[in-house]
Amino acid sequence: MAAPAHAELPVGAKAPAFTAQAALGGKPFSFSLTEALRKGPVVLYFYPKAFTQGCTLEAHAFAEATPDFQKAGATVIGMSADDLPTLQKFSTEECRDKFAVASATPAIVRSYDVDLVRDGKSTGYTKRTSYVIARDGKITLVHSDMDYREHVSLALAAVRKLHHH
Length: 165
Fold this sequence. Notes:
Layout: E1 19-24, E2 27-32, H1 33-39, E3 42-46, H2 53-71, E4 75-80, H3 84-93, E5 100-103, H4 106-111, E6 115-118, E7 121-126, E8 129-133, E9 139-144, H5 149-163
Parallel strand pairs: 3-4, 4-5
Antiparallel strand pairs: 1-2, 1-5, 3-8, 6-7, 8-9
């Protein structure tokens, strides 16, 4: 049975907890979704590959908006299937030390349903999908679009909505 093309987790679903190897400003650390949610909502955005054009532009856009996300009490974390050394470089050069990026293991990719499939086969990359996760661990926004442009504004609007409840 073929999985539907858009099999992302739905709004209202509980975001699967995970810990991943991450980097912020080039420094490696262990990112725990559960710990991050204690501080406030989390914007978890998956992107296909560090240093490719759309992903770089998206990282710049999230970096620019980091102060706005912080004001709304949210943590931004970018995830791709890249290895840690690549992400350490990306976190400094393209995320401009503003937010963390983490390495999505196959298990994380599966649990969030973000495997980028072409012609029925996994490409080894993740889809460009953004999730906004409320403090209670529930997903309040899912945006999956290979065009990076709307991700930041939609995620920010979703986070601000949470702030006013």
